[in-house]
Amino acid sequence: MSIAGSHGFAWVAKTLWEVVHHARLLMIFCYCIDVCKAMVSWEMDVGLLSLVWRY
């Protein structure tokens, strides 16, 4: 009984750790996407400004 209980606890701990790990990876991934979108929009703004400035 105690072996099964400790095994269950280990499984729960492992599952929680994996969830936290994947959540952290997902947060990093979303942050990178946000940064890329910000850079692209900034470049587009600069490009539009340069086009307007040129004409």
Which helices and strands occur, and which strands form pairs?
Layout: H1 2-54
What would your notes on this structure say?
The chain has 55 residues and is an all-alpha fold. Helices cover 96% and strands 0% of the residues. The chain contains one helix and no strands. It has one helix at 2-54. The model has no long low-confidence stretch (mean pLDDT 86).
As residue ranges, the low-confidence spans are none
Q: Terminal Cα separation, in Å?
A: 80 Å
The secondary-structure element order is H
Specify the structural class: mainly alpha
Secondary structure tally: strands: 0
Q: What is shown here, in short?
A:
By secondary structure, this protein is mainly alpha-helical. The protein contains 1 helix and no strands. The termini are far apart.
Q: Which short descriptors sum up this protein?
A:
55 residues, mainly alpha, 1 helix, rod-shaped
